[in-house]
Design a protein that fits this description.
The chain is an all-alpha fold and 165 residues long. It has five helices and two strands, in the order αβαααβα. The radius of gyration is 21 Å and the shape is elongated.
């Protein structure tokens, strides 16, 4: 019997196994997220922006990797400013940082939806969805690192060479 991955997943027994214990959607202490009406379309543009900033705040408060990406991105932007990089180079760095942060937000959303639908049970498709979303963040982060290093290393090397020699 020659099955591909998708056929194998579809034909496997439908048993589910418990995942490791722990809260699926950790919330920071002393912070409640009231989203009872989150299924409705926002009444105004201002409400849409408020929901978006709540999502960013949730990711920053609960996702360690999001905070790491914000820190590294801030360092890259600060280094670019201190090296007086051209505006286009700074824009490229800022866009790649934005891409990584957006991917991290999408990853958080996918993980939350998967946790909600899998209901704290193990499922092969849930693992695939989470792993692929995390993989997208990794690809974006590596690309961002390559871009930042290619734009920051030459002027940094020049500045260090002039200071030391």
């Amino acid at each position: 019997m020659n099955l591909n991955l998708f056929e194998a997943i579809a034909e496997r027994p439908k048993t589910r196994y418990l995942m490791s214990p722990g809260p699926p959607n950790p919330t920071p202490k002393n912070k409640a997220y009231d989203r009872q009406l989150s299924w409705q379309v926002a009444q105004s543009l201002w409400a849409s922006f408020r929901y978006a900033t709540q999502g960013i705040g949730y990711a920053f408060a609960t996702q360690r990797n999001f905070r790491i990406h914000v820190l590294i991105g801030s360092i890259a932007l600060g280094l670019g400013l201190s090296l007086n990089l051209e505006a286009v180079k700074m824009a490229v760095i800022a866009l790649t940082i934005g891409l990584v942060l957006a991917l991290e937000l999408i990853n958080t959303a996918i993980e939350s939806v998967v946790d909600l639908t899998a209901q704290q049970t193990y499922h092969d498709l849930a693992k695939i969805a989470k792993d692929c979303a995390a993989g997208a963040v990794l690809v974006g982060a590596i690309a961002s690192l390559i871009v930042a290093l290619s734009l920051l290393i030459p002027p940094l090397w020049t500045r260090l060479s002039s200071l030391l020699g």
